[in-house]
Amino acid sequence: LMHALRRSPRARGGFIHIPYAPEQVRSRPGTPSMPIETVAAALRAAVHAALRADQDLRVTGGDTH
Q1: Which of 18, 29, 39, 41 is in the most buried spot, having the most CB atoms within 10 Å?
Q2: What is the distance in angstroms between the CA of the first residue and the CA of the last residue of the chain?
Q3: DSSP the chain
Q4: Which residues fall within 8 angstroms of residue 46, CB to CB, at 6 or more apart?
Q5: At CA 54, angle to CA 59 and CA 1, rounded to 5?
Q6: 50 within 8 A of 37, measured Cβ to Cβ
């Protein structure tokens, strides 16, 4: 994604990290998870907000370890 964005600086893009579904962590007590329905609702809201925004914020977030 970042490579493609460097080649096309006017392109809009981003990354959304989502947690495991509860079904994926049944054998891993304490591992964070979120119901798929909740993830889907959040992704719909994120896409809706991205489509409505006329200008992107130029910020960096997260860590690379």
Answers
A1: 39
A2: 18
A3: -HHHHHH-TT--------PBPGGGGTTSTT--B--HHHHHHHHHHHHHHHHH-SS------S---
A4: 16
A5: 50
A6: no
